[in-house]
Amino acid sequence: MNMIIKPYRFAGLLACLAVVSTTGCSSMMSHSGPDQGYYPGTRASYETITNPESGWVMRPLAAVDLPFSALMDTLLLPWDYYRSGSDKAADSPRERILRSEKQNGTAASLASAAPLTTAH
Q1: pTM (2 d.p.)
Q2: 3-state secondary structure of 88
Q3: DSSP line for 11-63
Q4: pLDDT tens digits along 64-98
Q5: Count of beta carbons in the 10 Å neighbourhood of residue 72
Q6: 63: closest CA among 75, 45, 51?
Q7: Are 19 and 64 in contact (CB under 8 A)?
Q8: Based on the number of CB atoms within 10 Å of its own CB, is 26 exposed (0-12), middle (13-18) or buried (19 or more)?
Q9: Which residues 6+ apart lie within 8 Å of 96 measured at CB?
Q10: Of 50, 48, 1, which is closest to residue 25 (Cα–Cα)?
Q11: Do 62 and 45 touch, CB atoms closer than 8 A?
Q12: What is the C-alpha separation between 39 and 74, in angstroms, rounded?
């Protein structure tokens, strides 16, 4: 009987570790991009839970992720404070693309391109 309980305890511990290691994703993803203010992961999880257009799979995952993202966001508050005075546009991929298009004259070259014709 004792031999049977040990594998179940190990499996339970492994399952708990798997759940804990995959949580806090919203916080980590939010902090890997441009500065989004304080508690960005927590806000992202909350918005996913409350958005009626979120899928039936994403809502429970965001609900599990929410407390762990709040914990990670709390731990990363010094980093958020450090980044709070930075220029958000410099970190934004969208702003970098728009700046590059403006610098390279993309809009002007597209305007002078031949129009796309489609056969009906």
Answers
A1: 0.55
A2: helix
A3: HHHHHHHHHHHT--HHHHHHHTSS---SSHHHHHHHHHHH-TTS-TTHHHHHH
A4: 888 888 988 898 888 888 877 766 666 667 777 77
A5: 21
A6: 45
A7: yes
A8: buried
A9: 90
A10: 48
A11: yes
A12: 7
Residue among 70, 82, 78 nearest 28 (CA): 70
10 Cβ neighbours under 8 A, 6+ residues apart:
none
- The letter for the amino acid at 116 is L
> How far is it, in rounded angstroms, from Cα 23 to Cα 82?
24
> Mean pLDDT across the stretch 29-47?
82
Task: Please report where in the chains the tokens 């918005």 appear, as a residue.
Answer: 47
DSSP 84: T
| Degrees to nearest 5, angle at CA 64 with 60 and 70 | 130
The CA distance from 79 to 68, in Å, is 17
